[in-house]
Amino acid sequence: MKINWEGVMPAVTTKFTAEGQLDLVMFEKNIKAQIDAGVNGIILGGTLGEASTLTKEEKEVLITNTLRIVDGKIPVIVNIAEQTTTEAITLAKRAEELGVNGLMLLPPMRYKATDYETVVYFKEIAQSTSLPIMIYNNPVDYKIEVTLDMFEELLKLDNIQAVKESTRDISNVTRIRNRFGDRLKVLCGVDTLALESLVAGADGWVAGLVVAYPAETVAIYKLVKAGKVDEAIAIYRWFMPLLELDISPQLVQNIKLAEVATGLGTENVRAPRLPLQGKERERVLSIIDFAMKNRPVLPAYKSI
Q1: What is the total count of domains within the chain?
Q2: Average pLDDT, rounded, for the chain
Q3: Which residues constitute the catalytic centre (predicted)?
Q4: Cα 151 to the chain's mean position, in Å?
């Protein structure tokens, strides 16, 4: 399946039972809700998916189940965030064998690689697979920035096709477009900058709160792309306090509480993460409760 690298692509959470096992029943319910809302792809194994806590076997279970659920309707993309180049290549090859449609690559983890080392890392993974690739550029959280000059070198490989743009610099969307045209697709990776990025010309949105609010997320994207920005802004303003739950070290716990509110998940996380406690839990729940009481009526966005 060809990936167009556009639209809304949820970075989905991994569902766990109270005993800490994969909750495939709730996982399937959430994936089906994403598909019903009109998302353009599913991204597995990101930070929100608690990938660092998953075993190789669990990752494969999630991949095979997602492929079964989506049944070819939308692409399935697997995140690569391994400790070594060898491990990253192994996972990339295995993902391709299992039938995934694309990869998202983080820079080297636990080591602040040089620009040269980062480019070589990405290129060696890309050369090990025929799958299309989106580079995750998040210097705020991962301390490595993929600069435009680095992309100049990376784009010599045809299967490096997109960037999850999370530098927090909106003007980077324009810089990328000016330098690379449509050769490098741009997807916003920061929920609180999504509408602004789309207006600036981003092709899509790798979203977090979408896992709890898929329809609202897709509606914003569709309205912006249809030129109905005022309608999109009205939903976005309602959404913003929720979207801010994504820019926190406890984003997983925050967003899983939102999934509970909409019936699309549980708050079970895997240690060392623990459910929110005390005043912080009360604060997050109050944000979610206010949003649920004031949830907007959406236009018929699917027909736009």
Answers
A1: 1
A2: 97
A3: 136, 164
A4: 20
Kindly state whether residue 248 falls inside one of the protein's structural domains. no
Which pLDDT score is estimated for 1?
A: 87
**Enzyme catalytic residues:** 136, 164
Give the up-direction half-sphere exposure of residue 286: CA atoms within 13 A in the CB hemisphere.
6
In the chain, which ranges are E strands? 7-10, 42-44, 76-80, 102-105, 133-137, 160-165, 185-188, 204-207
What is the model's pTM? 0.96
Quote the domain boundaries for residue 210. 7-228
User: Strand pairing of 102-105 and 133-137?
Assistant: parallel
Q: How many Å separate Cα 51 from the centre of its chain?
A: 12
Peptide bond before 272: cis, by omega within 30 degrees of 0?
yes
How many degrees, rounded to 5, is the angle at CA 294 between CA 166 and CA 42?
Answer: 35
**pLDDT at residue 275 in the model:** 96
CATH number at residue 171: 3.20.20.70
Q: Let me know if residue 302 belongs to a domain.
A: no
- Which positions make up the binding site for pyruvate? 206
DSSP classification of residue 22: B
Asked whether residue 271 is domain-assigned, the answer is: no
The gap between the terminal CA atoms of the chain, to the nearest Å, is: 24
- Give the per-residue pLDDT at 253: 98
In a domain, 269, yes or no: no
Stretch (H or E) spanning 258: helix 251-261
Q: What is the dihedral of CA 283, 289, 293, 294, to 10 degrees?
A: 50
CA distances, 142 to each of 85, 203, 296 (Å)? 16, 23, 35
Examine the pLDDT at 110 and tell me if it is beyond 90.
no
